[in-house]
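haha ok so turns out i had the wrong file open the whole time. this is the CORRECT one, sorry everyone. sequence first:
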Amino acid sequence: MIELWNGILMGLALSILVGPILFSLIQRSIEQGIKAGLWVALGIWASDIFFIGGIMLGVTHIAKMIESPLFEPILGVLGGLVLIGIGVGMFISKPAENMEAANGLEILSSQWKLWLEGFLINTVNPFSVIFWTSLITARSIETDLFSMNSYFFFGSVLGTIIITDVLKVVLAEKISKRLQPKHILRMRKISGIALFLFGVVMMVRVTLI
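then structure:
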């Protein structure tokens, strides 16, 4: 039971952090509704599962890779460029129509683009890699990674992240019903600028600091 609560607390701590993932998740939910927000969230969750599974299987090699002086700069620059690209695209483009109104092919295309956005933003974020590697490495020192306790712990971390992300999507969609189109456009531009700045800061931090 203690592993379950520890995982929930860790998931809550991670879910309240303000970063590019939060901006993307909320903005898509406001513009295109719950389904769009959930597709972004699905990409984020897939990335987290990818990290958990991959790092658990190769924790020693990945921990050594992260210790390399080139790892964070390379991933930080790549992640920064992705965030800058998404931010600029969000700033200069108009809000997409709600996916409910699109035809079948457009819906499928939009869904996978949203999924890919969530997956990329989370995957190329150095914080995500370092967070999961540090957490899993610490667990491997304390206990067996493939024990039932570890499964409870990581399951509760991921479960808490999923539940809080769903709540964010639902709340954002509720808020959108009170917003006029000009307000949504303004929020889109603010989110685009925020993602752009996150990308610039990420690149500066890993190359100059």
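The chain has one domain: 2-208.
again sry for the mixup
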